Structure formats: structure tokens, C-alpha cells
Amino acid sequence: MMTPDFIIEVNEADFEYQVLTYSQQTPVVVDFWAEWCAPCRVLGPMLERLANEAQGGFRLAKVNVDANQNLAIRYGVRSIPAVKAFRNGQVIAEFVGVQPEERLRQFLREIAPSPNDLLLEKGFSLLDMQKAEQAETAFRKLLEEAPENSQALLGLARSLLMQGLGREANTILANFPTSREYSKAEMLRPLSQALSQVETADYPESDEPLEAAFYNTLRLVRRGNLEAAMDGLLDILRQDKHYSDGRARLVMVALLEMMGDNHPITPQYRRELASVLF
Fold first, then answer.
1. Consecutive 10-residue runs of the chain (278 residues): their mean pLDDT?
2. Mapping DSSP to helix (H, G, I), strand (E, B) and coil, where does residue 222 land?
3. Measuring CA to CA, which of 67, 85, 143, 183 is 20 to 30 A from 191?
4. Which residue from 124, 83, 62 is spatially nearest to 262, judged by alpha carbons?
5. What pLDDT sits at residue 1?
6. How far out from the chain centre does Cα 127 lie?
7. Phi and psi at residue 92, to the nearest 5°
């Protein structure tokens, strides 16, 4: 099996060209290793697999320190495995020792963002700008390539909820993969479930004032009038903090999670919710 040209062995003779010069165009990650180093045998294959995934987003250059001691001295390698990332001929990031895969991925994202990383950043930036439909498009495009990307799934659910589309958001959240984003997905579910009822007109007509007010707040969310919806929920909570077994509180928390910390009205309503509950 041929080794792709973005995974190479380098030495003292070609380091200047294969790493320093090459890094003017594409980031180069240098793995300083040795055959006798057990942790190197763990980290090396992980880096190679991620380099294959990136398909040229960065070059992985492997340096055997036993055969290239001058390079190890030049770059201050005192313990291996040692990994150094180069851009424009300079070291821009580094670490020593075996790292968990998620930390490796974060390290690589910071030095060589992939097209999917850029789409993810675009989607969340659009959410911060309250451009939910455009954010939805970005997240859907990413999910075509990476259907299990939990960050994109969460972003898509948020963008759907911002548009009042509870049923599809609820399907996503009900089947959310185990991940770092799982707890945030669970926080959104009370809103997706409630909006699903309103979306299908599956909600009770009631003469009970708080119940009527609660379903009216959901209709306001569907129309995009978030401030009026949250004002309504706060009014309900002022009258009954435990309304409907805490449902109003959970929907309010979900709305704040849906909007995100960067939404201009989130801090104000977080404070108001805290003052009502505590």
C-alpha cells in the first residue's frame, strides 16, 4: 500500500524543504519518535489516521530522533513522542506525550481547520446573528458529509427551533448520539416537545388562565417573537414556579439554550429567570 504524500518520513537532509518550505503553503505536523518508544507506537498511528482523514489539510512529517539527533537538539526535544506544528517555517503549537483523540482533533483544528470545521463555525456564527434559515443550510450541508457530527446536529436542532419547527428538531434530539453535546440536547427537548404539540395543533383548549397563557407563549415562539414568549413564561412562573410539574421553567431554560450565550437578550432573561425562581 502506497503512503500518501501528506504522510512522509523526513531527515536532517530534507527537513528544510519538506517541513519548513512546505509549511509556507500547508501546515506541517512533525512527529518526533523512536522505535523503542512505546507511547510513540500509540500516538503515531492515531496521527496517521487523522492525517488520512484530513486528506491533505495538513502534512504529517515523521522524524526518527535516533537517526536525526541534530533535529531533536535543534527543536529542544527532550522527551518523546513530541509533536510540533509548523506554519510559515515557524513552530506555532506543540505538545509532548500521548493525547486523547479529541484533544488531538482540537489541536489539528486549531492549526488546519477542515472544510467541515469552517462550515460548523459558519453555522454557529449565523445562529449568533439570528439568521436561523441560513444556519440551517450550513448545518445540513455539513451533515451530508458527517451525519453523526454531534455539534452540527445540535446546531441544526437549534436553528429549527428558532424557526418554530418543533417536530424535526424533536426527532433529532430524541435520537441524539452520546457525546459532549448530549446534555445541551437534553436541555432543548422540553421546547421541541412543546412546539411539536403546537405545530400539530395537538394541544388542549382550556379556560384555565395559566394553561392558556402557556400555549400562547409557544405560539409566540413559532412566530419568532421570543421576547414576548419569555415575558409570558416569566409571568406564569411568578404566579406558579412549579407550573405543570416545572414545564414552564424547562421551556424557558430551553429557550435560553436555543438562543445561546451570544444572543443580545440572553443575559437579561437569565437574570430575570433567576430572580423569579430564587
1. 76 96 94 96 95 89 97 96 95 95 90 83 93 97 91 97 96 94 96 89 72 93 94 96 94 96 93 94
2. helix
3. 143
4. 124
5. 42
6. 13
7. -110, -15
Which residues have C-beta within 8 Å of that of residue 15, sequence separation ≥ 6? Answer: 61, 63, 68, 71
- C-alpha dist (Å) from residue 30 to 61, 112, 131, 144, 153: 5, 14, 40, 32, 33
Please state the φ and ψ torsions of residue 84, each to the nearest 5 degrees: -130, 135
How many whole angstroms separate alpha carbon 200 and alpha carbon 182? Answer: 26
- Helix spans in the chain (H): 15, 38-54, 69-74, 101-111, 115-128, 132-145, 150-162, 166-174, 182-199, 209-222, 226-239, 243-259, 266-277
Question: Burial of 178 by CB count in 10 Å (0-12 exposed, 13-18 middle, 19+ buried)?
Answer: exposed
CA distance linking residue 274 with residue 271, whole number of Å:
5
Note if the bond before 115 is cis, omega within 30 degrees.
Answer: no
**Which residues are designated catalytic?**
37, 40
The closest alpha carbon to 217, from 200, 245, 198, belongs to 198
CB 61 within 8 A of CB 8: yes
